[in-house]
Amino acid sequence: MALGFLAGAVWLGMDLHASQQRIIAEKRDLVQQKSQFMSQWFGTTILSTDYVLRDILGRVVPAGTAPQTAAPGWQEQTIRLLGEKSQSVEGLDGISFYGADCVFMAAANPKLIGFRSNQSFCRDRAEPVSSDTYIQYMPVERSATHRPVLLVSRNIVDGDGRLVAGALAAIDLSFAQNWLEEFPIGRNDVLAVVDGNDTLLARSPLLPGAIGSRAPAPAGQPSFGETRGSASFIARSPFDGRERVFGISKIEKIPLLVLVGLDREDLLADWRHRALQMGLGYLALLLLAFALLRSHRTALRQRAEMHRLAVTDPLTGVFNRRHLLDTAAEEVVQAWRQGTPLSVLLLDIDHFKKVNDAWGHAAGDRAICRLTEEMTVQMGPGATIGRLGGEEFAVLLPGCDPTEAAIQAQTLRHAVEQVCFEAADGVERSLTVSIGVAGLRPEDTGFETVQLRADAALYRAKAGGRNCVVVG
After folding, report:
1. Are residues 261 and 320 located together in one domain of the fold?
2. Which range marks the domain in which residue 152 is found?
3. Is residue 378 part of a domain?
4. Start-to-end Cα distance in the chain
5. Is residue 280 part of a domain?
6. Any residues with CB less than 8 A from the CB of 71 and at least 6 apart, and which?
7. Residue 388 DSSP label
8. Are 234 and 323 in a shared domain?
9. What is the pTM for the complete model shown?
10. Number of independent structural domains in the chain
């Protein structure tokens, strides 16, 4: 049973572990798909903005020409164009046009004209400039609008890689934050948008002190380079230290990452509840099984004790008269069937009445018990010893003929002579026994006839002076 319960515990543990892994695997697929969906959604805004910038540059700086900033009405027309384009994409906070010196020459917000862009290639003129799309986070202290924004820009460069002109669109980060907060999440889950430099641009739930700061990427976060990609991984958040199942996706050629993080503890809440239920159920079953086992063993012990009480003499512990006679009848049948000898000894304590009269029944009981102990030692395990009543005992000796039985009887008689018991006066007194021996004969009809011969032999032993053995 113990092995069965151990095997059950191992199976239960393996099943719970497998179900936990299945849940984690399912949630990893879920967060990866969700991050892909969100990146595509948010990427639509970025890509739409990029298309708008391309259209603006195509109109303001026709291919192979320089900006016609000196043309009459150029600035007014460009400002009007930028204003119209600012309304074409949700979330845009304005579009500006700058020249080779990064100074805004036209802007949807005319107040920005004359300001110099703080993009990285504008601050560091040694930084290479390309015609690819640039996406940069601009904190409050460097933002022309004095609000944290996400800048999306596209440049025109000459054959030597020098900046000719560019168009820049600002996306207020409140747009990204509001967009993230539209998605329902758990109390410990997280949604985030970060740029290619691991700068946190938006997060739900909002962490105001963390927005705009850089944090090391969670361990296991993959790098996608310029290509579109998505993955899932498990890591601890660098912001709050909670372990989450992350899904991450990147928009192709745009250095923005969308992360979806589901709290691992919350994901496994139902699993832990189920594991607890199963564990408690298994423990209850285990306790019930052990209670039943204990009850069963108690019942077996009680039954064995009741059987022992039913077949043994309460004073000496040897078989009582009834069980001895039942056993003797079975031994007779067995001896007849196998053709083997069977002998019986009948014995009682000499002058036992005087023992009771002189020293009391307690002394007599002690004498009987000492005799029983000596009989058990001398007769060996093959003999069956029983108390017929009072001081009279019988010994069944299967496989022994009367001659062999007489020898064993003499050995027992001599041993009993050495036995002492404590009388009422505290003095050790000795015992003697008379023994009658009889063996099973072919003409016997049962144990009763053998017992009668042994009883007659015992009577002759007593009549012949006691403390002797007589074979009948």
Report:
1. no
2. 1-267
3. yes
4. 56
5. no
6. none
7. E
8. no
9. 0.59
10. 2
